[in-house]
């Protein structure tokens, strides 16, 4: 019963967002961004509302959500670490640093820790190629990461 109430509340709030942004040309991405801003992710219960209002199939809406890395289908952790996976960062040891961080946290890409403390996501360029390898913690850019920085990141998100 509680699940239905939650879904009904999500549908209602989604409906308001769609109504506000539907007049835009190409409204799907702005709608998805606002929904994620509202809920912290794009809930499954919002997809049928968006599809119906924009005359799209659920599969089309889901395809857009799953294609773009910025959209989440589940809530992120309290902290989000994004590690750059671009060629510049990889050439400067980014793969080994990523493996170390994932190992320290006991996570894989796109996973959130069981305690909800941290989510680790790949990102395919932070624009810090001159200071590679790079990361982002809760929106703050960090260049020239190394083994010590990785250990510091793991400690910071667990504190």
UniProtKB/TrEMBL annotation:
Q: Which PROSITE patterns match?
A: COMPLEX1_24K
User: Cofactor stoichiometry and binding?
Assistant: Binds 1 [2Fe-2S] cluster.
GO terms of molecular function: 2 iron, 2 sulfur cluster binding; metal ion binding; oxidoreductase activity
Q: Which UniProt keywords apply?
A: 2Fe-2S, Iron, Iron-sulfur, Metal-binding
Source organism (scientific name): Hoeflea olei
- State the protein's name: ATP synthase subunit E
Extract the InterPro entries matched here: NADP_DH_HndA-like, NuoE-like, NuoE_N, Thioredoxin-like_sf
Q: Which family does it belong to?
A: Belongs to the complex I 24 kDa subunit family.
Family annotation (Pfam families): 2Fe-2S_thioredx (PF01257)
Q: Which cofactor does it need?
A: [2Fe-2S] cluster
Q: Where is the signal peptide?
A: none
Task: Provide the binding site for [2Fe-2S] cluster.
Answer: 84, 89, 125, 129
């Amino acid at each position: 019963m509680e699940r239905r109430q939650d879904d009904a509340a999500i549908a209602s709030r989604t409906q308001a967002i769609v109504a506000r942004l539907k007049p835009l040309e190409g409204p799907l991405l702005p709608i998805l961004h606002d929904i994620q801003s509202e809920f912290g992710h794009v809930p499954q219960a919002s997809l049928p509302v968006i599809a119906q209002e924009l005359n799209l199939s659920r599969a089309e809406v889901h395809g857009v959500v799953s294609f773009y890395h910025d959209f989440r289908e589940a809530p992120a952790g309290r902290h989000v670490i994004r590690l750059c996976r671009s060629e510049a960062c990889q050439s400067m040891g980014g793969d080994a640093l990523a493996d170390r961080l994932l190992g320290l946290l006991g996570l894989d890409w796109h996973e959130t820790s069981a305690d909800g403390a941290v989510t680790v996501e790949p990102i395919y360029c932070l624009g810090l190629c001159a200071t590679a390898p790079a990361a982002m913690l809760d929106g703050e850019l960090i260049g020239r990461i190394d083994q010590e920085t990785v250990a510091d990141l793991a400690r910071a998100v667990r504190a």
